[in-house]
Design a protein that fits this description.
413 residues, alpha+beta, FAS1 domain, 3 domains, seven-stranded mixed beta sheet, 15 helices, 28% helix, 19% strand, elongated, binds 2-acetamido-2-deoxy-beta-D-glucopyranose, FAS1 domain-containing protein
């Protein structure tokens, strides 16, 4: 206890003399610590979260020292729309609360501008976290210095008040309730409609359960619908086994890789088994084989998805990108005639998406225009909060406009 407190205090840069006092007396009063509720009571607009703490005392009473709590403000809960319904589901609320607690001191000033760190949370229940080390949040410091938390479904919250101290660590006040990452299917259907061709192909080959849903810890390179559209007449000429190999080549099992952790010229062993993907960095761009990574670090329940602009081909794993090109050429020998090209081309495999209760399949297939190099790669579903505007394109530009953060500078968890 005393040890934990001391180590937190040293992280918070308290003078050594005070640490000595803490060690001798072992008393929280010496360092003017306060419990979570008193600290939150000193801030405006945090009443909803304070009520949840009272409703779920166990989660907060048992916290060890050295934690960081992301506290959504009242407006964040109002934005949920269905809060009353939400609040009655004990399993859900408990999971969400745990997803807001990071078992580390994560100080906002310690994050370097342009850097993104992944912070595991206390949500380790395998039902919500089929991932090593607990479900994660991503914390990104924007060029302007504000820190944005990203959760599942691209749901983002900006830090409104940072580094408030309490006796077990820090509080960061955010303006959205973080959303627990869900499976690839749910994520593609609800938030990233630009992966529906890839998802449909996984269902068309009966690979979804085996390769994706049943896996723990995966990194997935998901081609955009536009990438599939370019191959609309070619892919149907592949046998089911060939298509399976192609799809397996997009999945790196057993590891969840944050994109900037992937070193230049490194290779990733894929579920395809025989060939490996090569990572290439060029200026501030990153490529997987010849495909450019358009959007990085999309959180799904069991890993991370990186959206790429080309369908990868295990048999063309030696093909590098044309780093000057706006979009990469297909790495399949094109066959068949595509009467319609570009955004009007058919979106392969979306007809294989299983129908849900309300059968949104037709809607998704027909109403989501795709393609064009500058289009937002992040459409639909739970949309960005007002603070963050059109984050699909912005995020992409933002990543490309900054030096990729040095992976070694990230906090190690
Ligand atoms: C508190 O919430 C109200 C209503 O949403 C808002 O008008 C006010 O600016 C908020 N105060 C602070 C300090 O954020
Ligand atoms: C409660 O939440 C859990 C976890 O999110 C979910 O699986 C379950 O279906 C919800 N129950 C109800 C009655 O909505
Ligand atoms: C990445 O590696 C390739 C091949 O080894 C090399 O040509 C390229 O210059 C490297 N890029 C960076 C940014 O170091
Ligand atoms: C293609 O994959 C094989 C098997 O992993 C590897 O030996 C080969 O070097 C790869 N080619 C390139 C250019 O990455």
């Amino acid at each position: 206890m005393v040890f934990g407190l001391s180590s937190f205090r040293s992280a918070a840069r308290l003078p050594t003399a005070i640490l000595a006092i803490v060690s001798v007396f072992g008393s929280a009063e010496v360092v003017k610590a306060a419990d979570l509720d008193s600290v939150l009571a000193g801030q405006t607009n945090l009443t909803t979260f304070r009520e949840l703490i009272k409703d779920y005392p166990d989660i907060f009473a048992k916290l060890p020292s050295g934690v960081t709590v992301a506290v959504p403000n009242d407006n964040a809960f109002d934005k949920l729309g269905n809060f009353d319904e939400w609040r009655d589901n004990k399993t859900h609320v408990e999971a969400v609360l745990k997803y807001h607690v990071m078992p580390k001191i994560v100080s906002m000033p310690s994050i370097i501008k342009g850097d993104s760190i992944w912070a595991p949370t206390l949500l380790t229940d395998p039902k919500f976290s089929p991932i090593k080390g607990g479900q994660r949040l991503i914390l990104t410091k924007q060029p302007g210095g504000e820190v944005v938390f990203t959760s599942g479904f691209a749901n983002r919250g900006t830090v409104m008040v940072e580094d408030i101290e309490w006796d077990k660590g820090l509080v960061q006040v955010i303006d959205s309730v973080m959303r627990i990452p869900e499976g690839l299917e749910s994520t593609a259907r609800n938030a990233y409609h630009d992966m529906t061709s890839f998802l449909g192909a996984l269902f068309a080959t009966d690979l979804y359960d085996e390769l994706i849903a049943g896996a723990k810890d995966v990194t997935i390179f998901a081609p955009t619908n536009a990438a599939f559209q370019k191959l609309a007449s070619t892919l149907p000429t592949l046998s089911k086994e060939e298509l399976k190999s192609v799809l397996r080549y997009h999945v790196v099992p057993g590891q969840v890789s944050q994109i900037w952790e992937l070193k230049n010229a490194s290779r990733l062993a894929t579920a395809e088994g025989e060939h490996s993907i090569r990572i290439l960095r060029h200026t501030n761009f990153i490529f997987a084989d010849s495909a450019q990574v358009l959007q990085t670090d999309i959180l799904v329940a069991n890993g991370a998805v990186h959206l790429v602009d080309n369908v990868l081909n295990p048999k063309a794993n030696g093909t590098g990108p044309d780093v000057e090109a706006v979009a990469q050429s297909p790495v399949f020998s094109l066959v068949g005639t595509q009467t319609v090209t570009g955004t009007g081309a058919p979106t392969p495999y979306t007809e294989f998406l299983p129908c849900t209760v309300s059968c949104p399949v037709t809607e998704v297939v027909r109403t989501e225009p795709t393609a064009s190099a500058t289009r937002s790669v992040n459409q639909g579903g739970v949309r960005p909060t007002s603070t963050n505007g059109a984050w699909g394109v912005q995020k992409f530009n933002y990543i490309c406009a900054l030096n990729p953060p040095d992976a070694s500078a990230s906090l190690a968890f």
